[in-house]
Amino acid sequence: TGLYKCACLKWEEVSIMDEKNIPIRTYQVCNVLEPNQNNWLRTDWIPRSGAQRVYVEVKFTLRDCNSLPGVTGTCKETFNLYYHESNEDRESYIKESSFIKVDTVAADESFTQVDVGDRIMKLNTEVRDVKVTTRKGFYLAFQDVGACIALVSVRVFYKTCPLTVRNLATFPDTITGADTSSLVEVRGSCVNQSEEREEPKMYCGADGEWLVPIGGCLCNPGYEERGGACKACRAGFYKAKSTDPGCAKCPPHSHSLRDGATICDCHAGFFRADTDPPSMACTQPPSAPQQLISVVNETSVVLEWTPPHRLGGRSDTSYSLECLICQTGSHSHTGGRFCAPCGSDVLFSPGQTGLTTTRVVVSELRAHTHYTFIVHARNGVSQASGAGAAQSVSVSVTTNQAAPSPVSSIQATDVTRHSLSLSWQQPDRPNGVILEYEVKFYEKDQRERSYRIMRTFSRSVDVTGLNPLTVYVFHVRARTAAGYGEFSTPFEFSTNSDPFPLIGEGVNSAFLLLSVSGVGILLLISAAVFIISRRRSKYSKTKQDSEEEKHLNPGVKIYVDPFTYEDPDQAIHEFAKEIDVSSIHIEKVIGMGEFGEVCSGRLRVQGKREIYVAIKSLKAGYSDKQRRDFLSEASIMGQFDHPNIIRLEGVVTRCKPLMIITEYMENGSLDAFLRKHDGQFTVIQLVGMLRGIASGMKYLSDMNYVHRDLAARNILVNSNLVCKVSDFGLSRVLEDDPEAATGTYLSPGGKIPIRWTAPEAIAYRKFTTASDVWSYGIVMWEVVSYGERPYWDMNNQDVIKAIEEGYRLPAPMDCPVVLHQLMLDCWERDRAERPTFSQILNMLDKLIRNPGTLRRTGGERYLQYPQAQYWSQGWWSLCEWLQSIGLERYRDTLAAAGYTSLDSLLALTHQVKIKHKTRTKQKQLRL
Ligand code: AMP
């Protein structure tokens, strides 16, 4: 139903039986005897309902012309499918010319006889897709040009990426894009009770498959992920932060009564400190410290106790000490005595508050005085528990009688040849009434071997009978009823040679000693610092040297950066041959380079055969810098000599325009070449190309050259499928480039081909051979996917983000598993983990020698055979091809066996193909 017969009514609606004997309606036409048939059948208007690409599945049967006698020249075995976009849902007449052809459809299976009794019906199913974007709907039409067809069914559909939940974000059912390679960017919305971790995004691919999820959501506090949704934590469980992995059981001494708890409440009598995490058990304040004991030593007291019996489940118990000075009285809360806080001159060691140890020495107390010490224990929840007054234990002590403290300084008030007058201050803590002072002195040279003692009630003394010009050492101590205190430290004074007195303060010998030794130590330290800093700088220099040396591979030629030459012309003449312009014949323009046109032509140098060359010229009106940049590529290229690096023939610098002449690569750049021949090569051929590129890159890395812009667009291909690395323009990477507009070379602070570049090179411009290896992995992907754009049309920012999140390009269609694994190895985040080019080369060689290892793929392309057009004639191409796949050592064996051209080898592959069909795989594998 719904199909219109048009014009000449040659299509007929007929009922037939299908294979299962069920009656079906078909449209049939079979005017095979008459020439120039043009019979049309069209559908109703089909609304496009938002689709941009629709698929038309046609089921039909078709009669084989050979089985019909006398129809030669008039009978056809195809029909044409057309469409016409329209907003009109009831167009009664549409001109033939308004229809656009989708395709000519042929049958896979035609049948030779119509025998209803035998029910031989060979049903063909063909699917075609077409972009419909301009109108609200469309019509389809079938044009018969003289075949014998029965149209059994027409199914029209479009593809969607189905509604899905990924990383807790919902992505709606999304219609795929208009083109087979287009990706539709879709923003997800967080599922109920979740919040965005990072904007959730995914791409809907043309096949209706979701690709590259980025970002996502996290369940809110109190909720956890279960089966792609956020479900409330059950009673007894909680989740405090959205970033917590899931609901957790309430910690000890806490509970949650309702679903969706973000924290558990403490049981009665248990508490949580402000700084306690929700995952910590609820705790209690400590009980009082235990077994407080005191030991009095004159005017000091040592207090010791043991930790509380109950720590409340915490480990942050601390102690503080309260010190009260008490007089006997009736008002006190401490045993009938009146107490007041001790003065600030009392010393506590190691401290008075925040103590984590259980021993304190209290000193500088008054002698003969009553004190009460209270030790408080507290922890993190003492405050929260409301028990602000911490649990405590106390002890009362009375200090002993104590001798006075030492005199702290002595001054000489009068100095003569034979006498010294000294005075001093009362000790800081006399601890009672001072009854007298004792002065002990001796000549410094004598040490204490003989000394004299003088006693005095006052705080001064005149010492007489001394030798002139002699240093004396003095000590003073005080005495109370409790006895003598300690002597003071020594003070030195010298008698005079002069009749005139010298007045000055005593110098503490210890200080003197310290000062002298201090200067010595300072000198020593300076010397040490000097020596160490000298050593350090030597060390770092050595390290640097060794780092630099690490790259220098003895015996291998090292690349020289032409920019290290002050005069660029000197570099170019060192590395490139000047060619006389008369020996060049330009033939045609083949491309556009950064500095001007690229042409192909011929070069005939005297005494050599004529060769095809590519000629790059520098367009007129260039600046000095452009000239230098243009020639730098030749100065770089001229240093290389390898079959997989584009060969420099020479330069023209003596006349204008300036030219760079290189070997001619017939198939141009690799990316365009692969796109043009999508699906036409065998895996071995693709691996052969990759091997060539890896070999060129190994050579460059051995020479210490970092390419920085390795990509399929910068690989050139010659007529024998040999791939060569090109594009050594430094300026391209560092400066403005027309590609910047297309987004290939975008990055802040310089142009970087984002999709091809390793993350460390993007992040902090760390370009190394290892970053070239990353790019090589991308080139592998480009090659195996026949020139697909890496990361399709994702934008650069998304690519960077996806890589950062660990996303890597998936295996292209039919890509052998080993090759994709090698790509993934090249894309290791840690650059030290990536393979070297030499390892890549070995790996590819192994694969080429054992093609069986390439067999595991996701698809069908493996057992295809080389297409004849890429096998050019002759022995040369055979040699070059063998070399490109690393099998040149079989050259003589093949020659001996009579295979002297690629054609003869192709014949062998056909033989093998035939044998393969008869299950003889041996030869194929060996090849
Ligand atoms: P380039 O400036 O090197 O990127 O060259 C621009 C374009 O010219 C390339 O994409 C190639 O298509 C073409 N081309 C450059 N060098 C050669 C060559 N040696 N042989 C053939 N085509 C070339």
UniProtKB/TrEMBL annotation:
<feature type="active site" description="Proton acceptor">
    <location>
        <position position="709"/>
    </location>
</feature>
<dbReference type="Pfam" id="PF01404">
    <property type="entry name" value="Ephrin_lbd"/>
</dbReference>
<dbReference type="GO" id="GO:0005005">
    <property type="term" value="F:transmembrane-ephrin receptor activity"/>
</dbReference>
<dbReference type="InterPro" id="IPR000719">
    <property type="entry name" value="Prot_kinase_dom"/>
</dbReference>
<keyword id="KW-0597">Phosphoprotein</keyword>
<keyword id="KW-0418">Kinase</keyword>
<dbReference type="InterPro" id="IPR009030">
    <property type="entry name" value="Growth_fac_rcpt_cys_sf"/>
</dbReference>
<keyword id="KW-1015">Disulfide bond</keyword>
<keyword id="KW-1003">Cell membrane</keyword>
<dbReference type="GO" id="GO:0005524">
    <property type="term" value="F:ATP binding"/>
</dbReference>
<dbReference type="InterPro" id="IPR013783">
    <property type="entry name" value="Ig-like_fold"/>
</dbReference>
<keyword id="KW-0675">Receptor</keyword>
<dbReference type="GO" id="GO:0005769">
    <property type="term" value="C:early endosome"/>
</dbReference>
<keyword id="KW-0325">Glycoprotein</keyword>
<dbReference type="InterPro" id="IPR050449">
    <property type="entry name" value="Ephrin_rcpt_TKs"/>
</dbReference>
<feature type="transmembrane region" description="Helical">
    <location>
        <begin position="510"/>
        <end position="533"/>
    </location>
</feature>
<dbReference type="Pfam" id="PF00536">
    <property type="entry name" value="SAM_1"/>
</dbReference>
<dbReference type="InterPro" id="IPR001660">
    <property type="entry name" value="SAM"/>
</dbReference>
<keyword id="KW-0677">Repeat</keyword>
<feature type="disulfide bond">
    <location>
        <begin position="30"/>
        <end position="148"/>
    </location>
</feature>
<keyword id="KW-0808">Transferase</keyword>
<dbReference type="Pfam" id="PF14575">
    <property type="entry name" value="EphA2_TM"/>
</dbReference>
<dbReference type="Pfam" id="PF00041">
    <property type="entry name" value="fn3"/>
</dbReference>
<dbReference type="InterPro" id="IPR020635">
    <property type="entry name" value="Tyr_kinase_cat_dom"/>
</dbReference>
<keyword id="KW-0067">ATP-binding</keyword>
<keyword id="KW-1133">Transmembrane helix</keyword>
<dbReference type="GO" id="GO:0007411">
    <property type="term" value="P:axon guidance"/>
</dbReference>
<keyword id="KW-0812">Transmembrane</keyword>
<dbReference type="InterPro" id="IPR003961">
    <property type="entry name" value="FN3_dom"/>
</dbReference>
<dbReference type="GO" id="GO:0030425">
    <property type="term" value="C:dendrite"/>
</dbReference>
<dbReference type="InterPro" id="IPR008979">
    <property type="entry name" value="Galactose-bd-like_sf"/>
</dbReference>
<dbReference type="InterPro" id="IPR027936">
    <property type="entry name" value="Eph_TM"/>
</dbReference>
<feature type="domain" description="Fibronectin type-III">
    <location>
        <begin position="285"/>
        <end position="402"/>
    </location>
</feature>
<feature type="domain" description="SAM">
    <location>
        <begin position="877"/>
        <end position="911"/>
    </location>
</feature>
<feature type="binding site">
    <location>
        <begin position="590"/>
        <end position="598"/>
    </location>
    <ligand>
        <name>ATP</name>
    </ligand>
</feature>
<dbReference type="InterPro" id="IPR001090">
    <property type="entry name" value="Ephrin_rcpt_lig-bd_dom"/>
</dbReference>
<dbReference type="InterPro" id="IPR017441">
    <property type="entry name" value="Protein_kinase_ATP_BS"/>
</dbReference>
<keyword id="KW-0732">Signal</keyword>
<dbReference type="InterPro" id="IPR001426">
    <property type="entry name" value="Tyr_kinase_rcpt_V_CS"/>
</dbReference>
<dbReference type="InterPro" id="IPR013761">
    <property type="entry name" value="SAM/pointed_sf"/>
</dbReference>
<keyword id="KW-0547">Nucleotide-binding</keyword>
<dbReference type="InterPro" id="IPR011009">
    <property type="entry name" value="Kinase-like_dom_sf"/>
</dbReference>
